[in-house]
TrEMBL record:
It comes from Flavobacterium faecale. GO terms for biological process: gamma-aminobutyric acid catabolic process. Keywords: Oxidoreductase. InterPro entries: Ald_DH/histidinol_DH (IPR016161), Ald_DH_C (IPR016163), Ald_DH_CS_CYS (IPR016160), Ald_DH_CS_GLU (IPR029510), Ald_DH_N (IPR016162), Aldehyde_DH_dom (IPR015590), Aldehyde_DH_Superfamily (IPR050740). It comes from the Bacteria. This is Aldehyde dehydrogenase. One of its GO terms (molecular function) is succinate-semialdehyde dehydrogenase (NAD+) activity. PROSITE patterns: ALDEHYDE_DEHYDR_CYS, ALDEHYDE_DEHYDR_GLU.
Length: 485
């Protein structure tokens, strides 16, 4: 094996282990497709061991006072601060985002951990008046037990913090399963878990491409809650898989966020937000601007300015400070995106920017695609109907806000939407009627930790972040206590 290729083992019950099968998964740098690491490919037996060790550790962890559990999260966050650039470099290597974006992801992970740690003393139950003398009625909030965190490839580290933070502070144990394309930062995160002395089995990590092993994680009766960030297709599969055990679920699934620009919008502000909200992280953000619906009265002006702004995006080496967009994670993903663009052109859309691999020697290998804009797009076109999850933006003219709202609500998914208008009646109508989990009104892409990230309809159930995200890792236990003689 190339000595420059580092091997990462799975982390189970406080130990670094290779699978008994000795199988491994190669991890490629999406910028040049060079293998820079391998990780242990866990077997079904390895997953079973992780489940059993998590179950064995859970009660003692639950009985540990919450503020003591929080101290471990604070300690991990402190370690991340010390190694910020190290983790950012790993994120660039395995995921392809620019170095500043990677640093931001590390900072976000620290925030997820510290916010949830700070909530340790604010886990609250309730007491209500009893209808009898010498009797108490109380509702306690208790952990589910063994939880599983299934993480997507677009934010390999932040999604771990987003799940591990609330899971651990509320007394659950968690098995992390990172995406097989981006497992390196997950392994390094577990190194920090180990270094700060988190008890054995409280956090485990398995990586696998074995269908039986992956299925066991969610089908096992040991698993009491599954938290998934992934595609709608994956969510539907897991929904079926957990049915037998009636396992609790938190699903953050696919989205197709419309970016609605009304005739009274601040066009300059909308253009800037539309560009950033589409091409951040090479378009691989679940709440990204997936399609523009612009009022026909301002469509030409808006589109011309947006094209000019997107032309300023520099694609290249994600470690170059002047670069704004790196490669996509997956070769198959980029091939799919190119296919969508070609299909949409066949349907009558006009390619006005991009639509291909960038020119130049450095782009001959890797998952590269130019920032792309399509116009003359209709609602039944493929780029309007399918989640793109890449640097391609279709623009469709609409007759006004009412049409855009109707088209948005007619969709099966409902994760997020953007609305640019200065008409407060439209603001309120959107708040009252738009069937999505998050609405950005005159605001570009953002996600505050104290907010709540959730989808409506097929975009998921439950959610993450803030006090409601913490609630998602707690179930209620009602107690009637009679203390009569």
């Amino acid at each position: 094996m190339n000595q420059n290729i580092q091997h990462y083992k799975c982390y189970i019950n406080g130990e670094w282990l290779d699978s008994s099968t000795r199988d491994s998964i190669k991890v490629e740098n999406p910028a040049n497709l060079e293998v820079f690491a391998t990780v242990t490919a866990c077997s079904k037996e390895d997953v079973q061991y992780a489940l059993e060790s998590s179950e064995k550790a859970q009660l003692a962890w639950q009985l540990t006072p919450a503020h003591q559990r929080a101290l471990y999260l604070f300690a991990i966050a402190d370690k991340l601060k010390e190694e910020r650039d190290h983790f950012a470099k790993l994120l660039v290597l395995e995921q392809g985002k620019t170095f500043p974006e990677a640093q931001g992801e590390v900072d976000g992970t620290i925030q997820y951990l510290t916010y949830n740690a700070e909530a340790a003393r604010r886990i609250q139950g309730s007491m209500f008046p009893s209808e009898n003398k010498n009797e108490h009625l109380a509702i306690y909030k208790v952990p589910y037990g063994v939880t599983v965190g299934l993480c997507a490839f677009n934010f390999p580290l932040a999604l771990i913090g987003r799940k591990v933070g609330p899971a651990l502070v509320t007394g659950n144990t968690m098995i992390i399963k990172p995406h097989e394309l981006t497992p390196v930062t997950a392994s390094e995160f577990c190194r920090l878990v180990h270094e700060v002395g988190v008890p054995k089995g409280v956090v485990n990590m398995v990586v696998t491409q074995n269908a039986e092993a992956a299925s066991l994680l969610v089908e096992s009766p040991i698993t009491k809650l599954v938290s998934l960030t992934g595609s709608t297709r994956a969510g539907r599969g897991i929904y079926k898989a957990v049915a037998h055990n009636v396992t609790a679920l938190t699903l953050e699934l696919g989205g197709k966020a419309p970016f609605i620009v009304c005739d009274d919008a601040d066009i300059e502000k909308a253009v800037e937000a539309a560009a950033i909200s589409r091409y951040a992280n090479c378009g691989q953000v679940c709440i990204c601007n997936e399609m523009v619906m612009v009022d026909e009265k301002i469509a030409d002006e808006f589109t011309d300015k947006l094209i000019k702004r997107v032309k300023e995006i520099k694609v290249g080496d994600p470690f170059d400070s002047s670069v704004n967009m790196g490669p996509g994670v997956s070769s198959l993903g980029m091939e799919r995106i190119d296919g969508l663009v070609k299909k949409n052109i066949e349907q009558g859309a006009e390619l006005v920017l991009g639509g291909k691999r960038p020119d130049g020697a450095m782009f001959e290998k890797g998952n590269w695609y130019e920032p792309t804009i399509l116009t003359n797009v209709k609602n039944d076109h493929v780029t309007m109907q399918e989640e793109i999850f890449g640097p391609v933006l279709p623009i469709m003219k609409v007759s006004g806000f009412e049409e855009a709202l109707a088209l948005t609500n007619a969709r099966e998914e409902g994760l997020s939407a953007y609305l640019y208008t200065n008409n407060y009646k439209r603001h309120m109508t959107a708040i009252d009627q738009m069937q999505v989990g998050t609405i950005f009104i005159n605001r570009g892409i953002v996600g505050y930790i104290q907010g709540y990230h959730s989808g409506h309809k097929t975009s998921g159930i439950g959610g993450e972040d803030g006090i409601y995200g913490i609630e998602g890792f707690l179930q209620k236990r009602t107690v009637y206590l009679d203390y009569n003689d």
